[in-house]
Amino acid sequence: MKLKAIKETFHKALDVIYGKEEVSSFFYLLIESYCHFTRLKLALEPEKTISKAEEELLLQALNRLKEQEPIQYIIGETEFYGLPFKVNKNTLIPRPETEELVEWVIASRKKNTPLTILDIGTGTGCIAISLAKNLPNATVYALDVSAKAIEKAKENAALNDVEVEFIEADILKEKSWNLKFSNLKFDIIVSNPPYVRNLEKQEMSTNVLANEPHIALFVEDNNPLQFYSAITTFAIANLKPKGELYFEINEYLGKEMIALLQENNFENIELKQDIFGKDRMLKGIKK
Ligand SMILES: C[S@@+](CC[C@H](N)C(=O)[O-])C[C@H]1O[C@@H](n2cnc3c(N)ncnc32)[C@H](O)[C@@H]1O
């Protein structure tokens, strides 16, 4: 079948859901991934035909897009901080806000200083791996409760040619982490933990709710800082003196987050907005 005929089929089925431009960009991503054929090549070879197997893959992707499955899960890959990351249903799709957190950590360091970093709730490993790639003298550790997420993160470390030590542990259970970390002290702890309250579900798109792992996203309405409190306790025990704690936070809970770090005697607390002007990142220094 000709690629241009399949493209028409995509537009007929999907333009009403996503709009013409987004459908075109999905189509180009898919032909690149499945047929190794770029948008430019298609413009130069408009009569290009593809194999039955490739056609089948594209039509399966079309059906998944009809069900509003994120394109990143269909292709199995996305980009974060200029690097490729494999994703699947066990890993949150990395978000652009989180790139800003990574940027903040990198900007605050001298590139060649040796340091030890821990990323808590690593998912795809996007934070840990981007830091390892950009801070070549850093020794990077990353922790997650999900063995399946860690499996993907290990693949991503290999894909990006960096060394990260992955640890399976539950940050909410002190017994699960205190043995594993008894001999380690960190210069930096960074985390983008679950922070969406159930009451915020109505603001979220159905494709996020139906497809992304709830364990990566949600916290109870009556305990929205559960992960931040646990990580702060962990940081008190495991950061070096003057060590830095960085969080991505819920945009509605900036004040509460500042209070949490103040109560725990962190200094030089800074709240930072993302490019949309929302309170999104917080940093504090251990005394
Ligand atoms: C918001 S996602 C962040 C993923 C990734 N760091 C990113 O920024 O895209 C939160 C991560 O925390 C992990 N997580 C959830 N509960 C946890 C727990 N009790 N202990 C450790 N990690 C946990 C989830 O598996 C998920 O990978």
Fold blueprint:
Blueprint lengths: L2 H16 L1 H16 L3 H6 L7 H15 L4 H5 L1 E4 L2 E4 L9 H12 L7 E6 L5 H9 L3 E7 L2 H13 L4 E5 L5 H5 L7 E6 L4 E2 L8 H6 L2 H4 E2 L6 H13 E10 L5 H10 L2 E8 L5 E8 L1
Helix pairs in contact: 1-2, 1-4, 2-4, 6-7
The structure holds S-adenosylmethionine (SAM).
S-adenosylmethionine binds next to helix 7, strand 4 and helix 11.
Considering DSSP H and I runs of 4 or more, what fraction of the residues is helical?
40-55%
Examine the secondary-structure arrangement and name the CATH architecture of the largest domain: 3-Layer(aba) Sandwich
Give the ligands present.
S-adenosylmethionine
Q: Mind describing the biggest β-sheet?
A: 7 strands, mixed
User: Into how many domains do the coordinates divide?
Assistant: 2
Based on secondary structure, the structural category is alpha/beta
What is the percentage of strand-forming residues? 15-25%
- Straight-line N-to-C gap: 66 Å
Q: What strand order characterises the main sheet?
A: 5-4-3-6-9-11-10
Can you tell me the CATH class of the largest domain? Alpha Beta
C-alpha Rg (nearest Å): 21 Å
